[in-house]
Amino acid sequence: MTDLANAEYTLYSSPFSLYSMMARHTIQLGRTTHSAKPPKDITLKFVNRGKEENLSEYYLTKVNPKGQVPAMTGNVLKQPLTDSISISLYLAENHYPDLLPDEHAAVIKDLLQRFHSVYGLSFSNKNPTPEMIQHNPSPVEDFLKRTDISPEYRKALEAKLKFHNENNGIAFHPDVVAKARADLRTIFAEIIELRRQSGALKTPAEWIFGNKVGPTVLDSHMLPLVLRCIEVGNAELVPQELQLWAKTNEKSPTWEKVMHGRPTRYDPSMGPVEDMHDMMSL
């Protein structure tokens, strides 16, 4: 039997990765819930994507073959968890059950899967170059030109490039962007309806299913998603009620522990990410 009380995890994360924020927010919200059964430890491991640490041999072969963040390893995990949905649902199911209440679990999982099927790049960058629209390149292409890498690493890079070409490589195609925008509009409308049904719609700070239910994994993922849409100039995709909800909860103590007052989108004026020491721990 797995001893979850002695579970120790390492969460590989980048501070301004949208999906890393979702995983970190899940942890912060989970810690506030009444039935929390926290693990012994969760260590935050900074992955510097600016220096392409997510494409290192160790990361691709031992942590996440997709070369993305977040990812999570642990002494009770048979294999790493390699995306924010699997990480958040695992933590909810094993440590923070209030984040996935039985009566709403099916709806939560459905909405999570649907908006995570939308490529983040498709709505996070409104001004791709003509070349990116045709084919968004990957630095892996240059890595594969090297002659000093191991066969195992080359194989991992080839798999990563294939994954990229099938996903982020096409993220700026006009039809992909149009579908992403339409899908997000539909999902946001459904969130508004859930808030209406729960009686939370008139109170901006209330969680999606109302304060009697409390925060769920849907809240932990939806807040950074909505904030990112607003910050990159895609606020027109988000109903005004949901914008107000996000801007209100942006000031919450749990979100403060995730971003420490910073926006979700990195800007060079902030200084080097590696110097943001307050973002490097949970």
UniProtKB/TrEMBL annotation:
Domain named GST N-terminal: residues: 7-99
Signal peptide limits: none
Protein name: GST N-terminal domain-containing protein
Organism: Talaromyces stipitatus (strain ATCC 10500 / CBS 375.48 / QM 6759 / NRRL 1006)
